[in-house]
């Protein structure tokens, strides 16, 4: 089986990434360079074995009346196509910097070609600067190999996001990092920055309830939601447990609230993330 895994069904070096698509044990995988970016079960194209994508649906617990969403970073389209199927009232725009990735999502990961999904090829930040749309949900899931491009993490960018977010909207970020320990400073800088822009920030280290302090120190995917909506952590947890009144069908969604981290995130020794002078306008 390892031999089959090592033989890609698609491999190409684009302007932005070295792309590889492989099938293994009924799962199709998309990699950028050495890191897995998307997965799709071949017997159900709307299912993924990547845990963090289910946490994006917590956005519906924050803004259950959402009718529009923007996703920055398409990958194989796992988040986009599942939301398209599960929430027919939501129109979704997705911005993907690499045209090869967008084509792979359509051709190999069964991203629907439908009027409720609009894929724009370009940089997510430039898209926001040029568009006049306002969204109920904005999701940032863009990776250059194993890190989010720095210009999508700064306070200036977050304020641009806020300008395109409905008053009761929610922004969702997926990052890789650690909350505590020797390598936590990049994440803690991000947390300090996002907390300076929105009133409420909810942090979900993926797998926290199972792995506890180990996960906080050694790191992994962390999904953060931020909003100015009037919603307590306790109210959010109730909505998750109730699957947003049964609307969310993601496997295991009802217990994702166990991963909500409500402890301290030390910020006094880390800087805010800001644009370099040449990028500011």
Keywords, please?
Rossmann fold, alpha/beta, single chain
Quick structural overview:
The chain contains 11 helices and 11 strands. The chain has helices spanning 2-6, 59-62, 78-86, 99-108, 124-130, 155-163, 185-195, 208-211, 213-218, 233-241, 243-246, and strands spanning 10-13, 18-24, 27-32, 35-41, 68-72, 91-96, 117-121, 135-140, 165-177, 200-205, 220-227.
Topology summary:
Blueprint: H1 2-6, E1 10-13, E2 18-24, E3 27-32, E4 35-41, H2 59-62, E5 68-72, H3 78-86, E6 91-96, H4 99-108, E7 117-121, H5 124-130, E8 135-140, H6 155-163, E9 165-177, H7 185-195, E10 200-205, H8 208-211, H9 213-218, E11 220-227, H10 233-241, H11 243-246
Parallel strand pairs: 5-6, 5-8, 6-7, 8-9
Antiparallel strand pairs: 1-2, 2-3, 3-4, 9-11, 10-11
* Strand portion: 25-35%
Instruction: Please identify, by name, the CATH architecture.
Output: 3-Layer(aba) Sandwich
Q: Going across the major beta sheet, what is the strand order? A: 7-6-5-8-9-11-10
Low-confidence stretches: 1-5
- CATH topology annotation: Rossmann fold
- So how many helices? 11
SS elements, strand count: 11
Describe the structure.
With 281 residues, the chain is α/β, with parallel strands linked by helices. The chain has a single domain, classed as Rossmann fold, CATH 3.40.50.150. Helix content is 28%, strand content 26%. It contains eleven helices and eleven strands. Strands 7-6-5-8-9-11-10 form a seven-stranded mixed beta sheet, sandwiched between helices. Strand 5, helix 3 (78-86) and strand 6 (91-96) form a beta-alpha-beta unit. The N and C termini lie far apart (53 Å).
């Amino acid at each position: 089986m390892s031999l089959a895994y090592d033989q890609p069904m698609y491999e190409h070096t684009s302007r932005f990434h070295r792309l590889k698509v492989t099938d293994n044990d009924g799962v199709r995988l998309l990699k950028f360079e050495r890191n897995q970016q998307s997965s799709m079960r071949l017997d159900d194209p709307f299912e993924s074995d990547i845990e963090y994508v289910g946490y994006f649906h917590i956005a519906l617990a924050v803004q259950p009346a959402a009718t529009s969403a923007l996703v920055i970073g398409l990958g194989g389209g796992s988040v986009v196509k599942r939301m398209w199927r599960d929430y027919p009232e939501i129109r979704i725009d997705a911005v993907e910097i690499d045209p090869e990735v967008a084509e792979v999502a359509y051709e190999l990961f069964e991203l629907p070609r439908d009027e409720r999904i609009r894929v724009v090829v370009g940089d997510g930040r430039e898209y926001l600067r040029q568009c006049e749309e306002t969204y109920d949900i904005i999701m940032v899931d863009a990776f250059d190999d194993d890190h989010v491009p720095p210009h999508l993490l700064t306070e200036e960018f977050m304020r641009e996001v806020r300008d395109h977010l409905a008053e009761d909207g929610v922004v969702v970020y997926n990052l890789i990092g650690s909350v505590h320990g020797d390598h936590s400073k990049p994440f803690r800088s991000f947390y300090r920055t996002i907390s300076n822009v929105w009133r409420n920030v909810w942090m979900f280290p993926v797998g926290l309830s199972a792995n506890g302090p180990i996960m906080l120190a050694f790191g992994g995917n962390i999904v953060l939601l931020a909003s100015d909506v009037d919603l307590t952590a306790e109210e959010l947890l109730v909505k998750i447990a109730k699957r947003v009144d049964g609307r969310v069908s993601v496997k295991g969604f009802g217990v994702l609230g166990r991963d909500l981290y409500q402890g301290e995130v030390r910020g006094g020794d880390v800087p805010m993330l800001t644009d370099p002078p040449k990028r500011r306008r």
